[in-house]
Amino acid sequence: MAELSTGGEIPPNMTIYINNLNEKIKLEELKKSLFAVFSQFGKILEVLAFKTLKHKGQAWVVFEEASSATNALRQMQGFPFYDKPMRIQYAKTKSDIIAKADGTFVPRERRKRHDDRVGCERVKPCIQFLGLQKGRKRKEQHDANQAGVGANPAYGGAYGATPPLSQIPYLGGAKSAVPEAPAPPNSILFVQNLPHEATPMMLQMFFCQYPGFKEVRMVEAKPGIAFVEYGDEMQSTVAMQGLQGLKINQQNPMLITYAKK
């Protein structure tokens, strides 16, 4: 797929082109994060990213519906994705998966002679991409936790540490998702109902938009939850109100409360 022209006037379609992405993020982490961020707008058919120097800092996200692409473009324009604001436009060319579906696909043999094709990786269909097939789920969860404890130098040591046991509300059996006795306002938020593919860096992209953000902590023994710390309770409250119910994917709206101390 070619880059966008700079002339604009590209008609709305099902694929968005994103540039100004952080080039320091590993390719697999980048694709997973893009999927997590954009899946709230609709079903994603594929995510394309490139390793080659010419295409670094760029990606394509292909939605099933053009309306999903439009909503994503409008709402995520300028979103601070790994500390860099995303620049989003409609893609100039039709993705192969869409062309095959509508019968307009024409094989491009010349691709084999282009160096740009070396290293191009295509994300598998959504279910496989999220690692839901048997035998991979545990490995991907382990990889996500490893990334949180310093696999990426930019976030080394800040994430993945287990908070004190006094802050973990539900160490016993299964209970209601809403605490029976809500904790009083404080600087630490307790985030529940997170999908298994969520990582500390994904969560940081959302919570760091709010003043006073300090860190994200996830608990390896209890997937699906996280703790987010701010400078004071007023800052944590603003973040809670702004992100309450946000969907990292279409099935998991975040439930945010104050953490128990």
Describe it for me?
The chain has helices spanning 27-38, 66-76, 96-102, 126-129, 137-151, 200-207, 233-243; strands spanning 15-19, 44-49, 59-63, 80-81, 84-85, 87-90, 121-122, 188-192, 213-218, 226-230, 255-258. By secondary structure, it is α+β, with helices and mostly antiparallel strands. The strands form three sheets. It has a five-stranded antiparallel β-sheet, covered by helices on one side. The chain has a four-stranded antiparallel β-sheet with strand order 9-10-8-11, with helices on one face. Strand 4 (80-81) and strand 5 (84-85) form a beta hairpin. The longest helix has 15 residues, at 137-151. The model is unreliable at 2-7, 111-135 and 147-172 (pLDDT under 50).
Topology of helices and strands:
Elements: E1 15-19, H1 27-38, E2 44-49, E3 59-63, H2 66-76, E4 80-81, E5 84-85, E6 87-90, H3 96-102, E7 121-122, H4 126-129, H5 137-151, E8 188-192, H6 200-207, E9 213-218, E10 226-230, H7 233-243, E11 255-258
* SS-based class: alpha+beta
Number of helices: 7
C-alpha termini separation: 51 Å
Rg for CA atoms: 20 Å
Strand content: 15-25%
Mean pLDDT: 75
How are helices and strands ordered from N to C?
A: EHEEHEEEHEHHEHEEHE
Helical percentage: 25-40%
Low-confidence stretches: 2-7, 111-135, 147-172
The main sheet orders its strands as 6-1-3-2-7
Largest sheet: 5 strands, antiparallel
**Morphology:** elongated
